[in-house]
Prior knowledge:
Blueprint: H1 12-24, H2 55-70, E1 76-77, H3 79-87, E2 97-99, H4 102-114, E3 118-123, E4 127-132, E5 135-140, H5 152-156, E6 159-163, E7 166-170, H6 173-180, H7 191-201, H8 207-214, H9 218-231, H10 241-256, E8 264-265, H11 276-280, E9 285-286, H12 297-309
Parallel strand pairs: 2-5, 8-9
Antiparallel strand pairs: 1-2, 3-4, 4-5, 6-7
Amino acid sequence: MHLASLSDSGHDARRVADATADVAGESVEPTFCTCGRSTAHPHMAYQSTLDDSAQNTNTFYRRTLHVLSDAGIPFLVGGSHAFLNYTGIARNTKDFDLFVRREDFDRTLEALTLGGYRTEITFPHWLGKAKQGDDFVDIVYSSGNGVCQVDDLWFDHAVEAQVLGHPVKLVPCEELAWQKSFIMERDRFDGADIAHVLRVQGQSLDWDRLVRRFGDYWQVLLAHLTMFTFIYPGERHTVPRHVFDDLLGRMAAMLDAPASEERVCQGTLVSRAQYLLDIGRYGYQDARLTPRGNMSPEDAIYWTWSIENIE
């Protein structure tokens, strides 16, 4: 499928439906911060990227941090490094995610290009990459579904830490949980990550900000919080009662309201693959698309095409 063949025909939903039907087949070691957060267990504070076999990769990561710092570009470290800091759980992964505002995205790639990296805009609606040899970092300014856009609040509430000996700021715990909450693919479900974050950090979370982050998608948060009470029944009071009262009150009001005649599928916000049939065959509107969502039809088509064509 060639994006150049797309035209502004006014049939955006149909174009995405056709594309999705095709794919569906119609069938480091951070220093633990003490910035008002609970610290994870220090005996778990290790990172697999510090093993001898990964020293070259760590050098690549360190240099990346220096390049962006020297260029004066504000960024936050997320991914496994932030998750380790907030939970004490180390991941055997080379994932290294750097988060920037959209307005800083282009100059971030430019600075890395000038630093000798190969850069690419992998997905124009949320992600770029910088590479050297087999090593790479992800440059993130939103999320795959277009919902979790990096804004000033990410930086206002960032947490100071050390990553690979370099002073950095981490993605806030609330924004980390917000972004992970929408990942519900068949081959990847981040629900366990949410439960672990809540278990360790629940007492210090800014719950009001977390609820506001979800906005109209508050049901996703309620689903994760309900699962948390199931996973850790003895820890259920970690979630403040007023949060449950608020979300359950919304649920009651929604159930009491007249049924909507709108045929919308919001499943595409939590899985880019598993609800394509609903869009392509059954005629549901894709909740990712503007004006309801933040993705253009071209974004959705390319994001769908990449399922089987981009690793």
